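Need tokens for this chain, all 80 residues.
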Amino acid sequence: MDTYDFAARVEHMGIGVRGNAGSAPAVRADELAAALDRVAGDSPEAAALRERARTLSKALGGPNRGRKVAAEQIRKFMAS
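Here are the structure tokens for all 80 residues:
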């Protein structure tokens, strides 16, 4: 359930797209390829998605902050 929720959120925020909206919970190669092209291709849409994602990342502390926070919390939990 969380995967669908997060995919819908990034799409709503304009920082990504769902890779299998029409075939979930399965994945079709053509649908995934189209989604990847929408975010990683050379189109104006792809550039805008990436720019919005960069802007949000900077506002939240940088591209690695979330992973570092998660790793630190896991480490603390495991140590307790």
